[in-house]
Amino acid sequence: MDKRKCKYLILGAGPAGLSFANRLLEQGESDFLVLEKEKEAGGLCRSMHVDESPLDIGGGHFLDVRSKKADDFLFRFMPKEEWDSYERDSRIQIGDDLIGHPLEANIWQMSLEKQVAYLKSIAVAGCSLGMPVPKEFVKWIYWKLGDRIAEDYMIPYNRKMFGEELERLGTYWLNKLPNVSFEETLLSCLTKKAHGTQPGHARFYYPKKYGYGELWKRMAEKIKDRILYSTDVRVIDFTANMVNNSFQGEVIINTIPWTEFQELSGMPEYLKEKIKTLKYSSVVIEYIPEKLAAQAHWIYYPQKEIPYHRILVRHNFCPGSKGYWTETNKERSIKREDRFSYENKYAYPLNTVEKPENIKEILEWCRERNVYGLGRWGEWEHYNSDVVVERAMDLADLMQG
Ligand SMILES: Cc1cc2nc3c(=O)[nH]c(=O)nc-3n(C[C@H](O)[C@H](O)[C@H](O)COP(=O)(O)OP(=O)(O)OC[C@H]3O[C@@H](n4cnc5c(N)ncnc54)[C@H](O)[C@@H]3O)c2cc1C
Questions:
Q1: Single pTM value for the model
Q2: What is the distance in A from the centroid of ligand 1 to the CA of 122?
Q3: Which parts of the chain have pLDDT scores under 70?
């Protein structure tokens, strides 16, 4: 189907585009078309079959149990019986210790000498002394967690993930991180159990027989006659609401990275300059067939000499599988021809200090022209898939009145 004119033109068939389109369909609206660059749907949430089992090519992907609205919607495509539910077991390799995550709630798992050293450093951190909250991420790490956790884990780990851009990150997004006070860290050491707010995915779902990508394949199947694959979107004309000089939508829903557009006709120069300030990082996934003894679902590695920053222990959440896969910032990745690997150019939208103001202006200007940014790239936000689904449902509901 090649429908050149429609009510809703949706750019990208990742979770955001698929959820928006399927929500429209649930409401009886079928006048839409989805344009997708790849040959299949699912975006960062796709899976492939590698070494006889599923592997998530966008990195480790788990469905959080916290969003009932999103989960109920998703279970309509892949019923709850097809998922296993897990209590998160994630660890951090610190020297020879494999410590629970978050580190500040689990230093009780270290030797007494180390506990004292870490506690001392948190006790004199800016946060404990009532100093003002810094606006830069690196300074915030020292302020919140003290120099031991900063230098043994948070700084080297985040530098591996974000590279040189680490210095440009702000602090407005830190509600994503666990929040553990000094008192809670102390309590954890005394009671030998974690205290404080838990990180995301404290409990999560993973498909019993498939990778995470199966969910989105099923969503795409429901609208298969309304998705055009292998369609690389590069041009948008805001004066006529046209894309690639071929497709026109009364409303355009953009879920692809704004930096993908080579031509943005009708957009003022100052906004085009703002788009150029939007930064991202790229992640390479590599599969290693070895079976590990670790019980964890995933492990974080702050060590400089190890290229990857996280491993996903597949056989601990994907029944009947073996092996693990690594996540490495592309800048640090060394390609090995004898291993399966997949490169995700757009993995993390970076939360630079200037981003909130810039993306706000871009989105407001576009909205006045019936072009809406949605999802991880459309809104340039570090959203997980359940959040993207919920936002897509809300936007579709709002538009359908
Ligand atoms: C390493 C990693 C781990 C993650 N772990 C989790 C997790 O455990 N749980 C969770 O819920 N979320 C997780 N996420 C986040 C999750 O991947 C995103 O929330 C989700 O994929 C966002 O969906 P989206 O549709 O907004 O973007 P995407 O998934 O990126 O989809 C965008 C779509 O647009 C298409 N596109 C791009 N450019 C063009 C173009 N020029 N023309 C046409 N189409 C184009 C892409 O091919 C893609 O299909 C993780 C992300 C990463 C990187």
A1: 0.95
A2: 36
A3: 1-3, 176, 199-200
